[in-house]
Amino acid sequence: MPKNENLFSSWAAWRRRTASRLLHLGWRRLQEAGAITAERPGLLRFGRIGPGTRLAFPQGTVFGEPWIHLGDHCVIGEQVTLTVGMWPGLDLGPDPVLRLGNGVVLGRGSHVVASQPVVFGDDVFCGPYVYVTSDNHSYEDPDQPIGRQWPRSAPVEIGSGSWLGAGAVILPGASLGRNVVVAAGAVVRGEVPDHVVVAGAPARIVRRWDPESGWHPPLRTLSPVPVTELSSPDVAIPPPR
């Protein structure tokens, strides 16, 4: 290949690398500037947004924020929808409708839709694309489109310390106890007691904790060792292979 073609190829490759780096750098700065915090609420006026809480940019649909109370140190992923009321601009009274406790994590693309009270306890962790709603479609009238019939609504409560796997759906009227594990893709309705694992559609209890005898059925693997313990000076971490 002639020398001038080598120079042209190298120059074109350098331009592509530089453009890619600038694009990613610009996007990171845009994400930082567009994130919502208590100090930088942007155009959103939440009823409360606690210290250390952050809504990643870009946000999903958000309205009814005066009736949304976000606890301390919550992490709200990209494209998360938080809506209160059937549509924007409604007066929903003096009390909050959607409340997130401290340390709640909502994974990317999750939706929380509330017209009745929806309450997350502290340290509830949600994987991506979780859907929590106080409203469900009704279909009593066979002559009307289902989407035009007024929905059925009921409060929702998710107990502290629970984990909602990717794609889980929490339906109106659901009440989850403490430290409940909801398997990925599960559809939950009704009451769920403390310290159980639920899976399926509709979700059913597949494992429960007994204070005297432990988990039933027993766990198939040993409890993982926390990284903080592995990294202590008395423990040698094997080198990567």
TrEMBL record:
GO terms for molecular function: O-acyltransferase activity. The keyword Transferase applies. Keywords: Acyltransferase, Repeat, Transferase. PANTHER family: ACETYLTRANSFERASE C18B11.09C-RELATED (PTHR23416:SF23), SIALIC ACID SYNTHASE-RELATED (PTHR23416). Belongs to the transferase hexapeptide repeat family. This is Acyltransferase. It comes from Actinacidiphila oryziradicis. It comes from the Bacteria. One of its GO terms (cellular component) is cytosol. The keyword Repeat applies. The lineage of its organism: Bacteria, Bacillati, Actinomycetota, Actinomycetes, Kitasatosporales. InterPro entries: Hexapep, Hexapep_transf_CS, Hexapeptide_acetyltransf, Trimer_LpxA-like_sf.
